[in-house]
Amino acid sequence: MDENKTSNNEEKKIIFSGVQPSGNLTLGNYLGAIKNWVELQKDYSCIYAMMDLHTITVRQTPADVRRRTFEVLALYLASGIDPKESVLFIQSQNPNHAELGWVLDCYTYMGELQRMTQFKDKSAKHAENINAGLFTYPVLMAADILLYQADYVPVGKDQMQHIEICRDIAQRFNALYGDVFTIPEGLLSKTGAKIMSLQEPQSKMSKSDPNPKAYISMMDDMNVIAKKIKGAVTDSEGVIEYREGDPAKAGVNNLLNIMSAVTGKNVNDIAADYSGKGYGDFKSDVADAVVECIRPIREEYDRIIKDKEYLMQICRDGAEKARYLSSRTMRKVYKKVGFVQL
Ligand code: TRP
Questions:
Q1: I want to staple 24 with a disulfide (CB 3.0 to 4.6 A). Which of 150, 195, 217, 243 is the partner?
Q2: Are 253 and 272 a contacting pair, CB within 8 Å?
Q3: Residue nearest to atom 9 of ligand 1 (CA)
Q4: Is the dihedral of CA 324, 330, 336, 340 positive or negative?
Q5: How many angstroms separate the Cα of 246 from the Cα of each of 61, 242, 250, 321?
Q6: Is 22 in the pocket of ligand 1 (CB under 6 A)?
Q7: Which residue lies with its CA nearest to atom 6 of ligand 1?
Q8: Mind listing the pLDDT tens digit for each residue in 51-98?
Q9: Is the CB of 51 inside a 6 Å radius of any atom of ligand 1?
Q10: Residue 142 C-alpha to ligand 1 middle, in angstroms?
């Protein structure tokens, strides 16, 4: 980084976000998060991470975690995140996350964590492994954000409760010790609607869905993507119309939202283009549009993923920047709570 760039970046507001390297990234992750992150690079100083510390709150196959960490990184890069503009790093490569996480554990109440929807959902889903890390997950996430004094955190709706508790913890700490942390704000994706499952359009498209027909993985072959869209659940009404909130229209709404996210056109305008036409034509056009959106990213991804040395170098540079950027906050926190500085 040259000097001008550094001072430039310091004036920009700070964005922090991350994705866990668990499961295959879906079209939902791309349209709902990563695509938006690429655009934010223009106006903000962005820090994006692979959240591997969070991933081990659920039992994983170690080789899969390792492989997926690079897959996530390669997908960030292929989507247009520029490692010269933004900081890209692996969470576990910056020990400040775990350290601040511990301090903040001591400023977070059991009752607050017990109320977290994601904790309740995940403990129901993994009843055999309700570990303490799963419980304190939101505190580590608060540390991720507060370490970098982030102003904004682009997340999906399901993560908003975690942003709320992060703000509560930061305000509590600031009330005790003065202005240590910037109070961050959640930033809901501009892309708008949540991308839903293709098979059960009432629930979110999830990379951990046991039915692979329910989601489009960014790693799927182009013909598989087309097939999955053509097989998406709709309804028997046969009318292409956007009716938000109508459960009978959930499948069609979802396809319209997907089409809108990849083409940038408004859902109602798209629906109007198909008045009098059948689901077959519509699905086939959605399939083409999605394939055209993913194809160039995939081609770039396939090239980058083979270049391990390049990926490793980005991780090394990113980790160094992340440690540097967060060290100031860490020192301040340790001083405030009374730890000896040598
Ligand atoms: N909890 C987020 C998710 O599962 C991932 C995450 C961890 C995160 N730490 C973060 C997102 C900090 C934004 C900021 O999607």
A1: 217
A2: no
A3: 141
A4: negative
A5: 40, 9, 6, 47
A6: no
A7: 18
A8: 999 999 999 999 999 999 999 999 999 999 999 999 999 999 999 999
A9: yes
A10: 9
